[in-house]
Amino acid sequence: IKREKFGEFTQSYLNNELKIYVKKSLRNIASFEDLNYKSIAIQKGYFFIDLLNDKFPDIKIVLSESLDNSISILLNNEVDAILSFELNTEYKLKNLLVNNIKSIEQNEIKNSNISIFSKKDDLILNSILKKALFQISHYEKKEIITNFLNSQKIKKEVNILFAKGREPYSYFNDNLKGIEYELIKKILDKS
Fold first, then answer.
1. Which of 82, 84, 76 is nearest to 38 (CA)?
2. In the chain, pLDDT over 70 holds for what percent of residues?
3. Residue 85's CB: how many other CB atoms inside 10 A?
4. DSSP letter, residue 60
5. What is the signed CA dihedral for 49, 55, 56, 60, rounded to 10 degrees?
């Protein structure tokens, strides 16, 4: 069912670019053509899955449950790339403190223009939204996006796992001591 039946969209206020993401160590992937006979992770339900499959039938599409899942299987070498929206992915990579993934521009599949949707019978709200969006300059939109991407808090805790009986640390009476533990503790204290 077309959404236009139930409501009205404002003009587009943001272009969320669709990009290919790969590990920084991969230098041989620069486009969809380079992914022929390789695999790419895409979140289930995205509109461009069929488009990619039609244009590049030799790329193996792996459907993922979430962006976190896509990032995880890329980092674990289960796929060669991710296809995802730039703002979502850049925010998630920063939030997860992942810095060994890079983006690659692509022009084969149209980017997503983002609009606000309101009920068809709420003409006043739609009019207000359109006027308000028109008043926001291009510079202000860029500033909002930059602030959004840089807004997350830096994590100051690290999950670590130590096994009993593996030096150079020791585990006595449920207290962990040793070189590795002390190094991690110092690093966290300085951050």
1. 82
2. 76
3. 19
4. E
5. 20
Mean pLDDT of the 96-124 span: 86
Which amino acid is residue 145, in one-letter code? I
Instruction: Assess whether pLDDT exceeds 60 at residue 171.
Output: no
For residue 5, what are its two tokens? 């039946």
C-alpha–C-alpha distance, residues 76 and 158, integer Å: 20
Q: What is the pLDDT of residues 60-79, one digit of tens each?
A: 999 999 999 999 999 999 99
The answer to whether residues 106 and 32 touch, using CB atoms and an 8 Å cutoff, is yes
The per-residue pLDDT for 24 is: 92
Q: Has residue 163 got a pLDDT over 80?
A: no
Angle at 32 between CA 31 and CA 36, to 5 degrees: 125
Structure tokens at 23: 């590990």
Phi and psi (nearest 5°) for 15? -110, 110
Peptide bond into 168 cis (omega under 30): yes
CA 24-101-89 angle, 5° bins: 155
Backbone angles phi, psi at 67, to 5 degrees: -65, -40
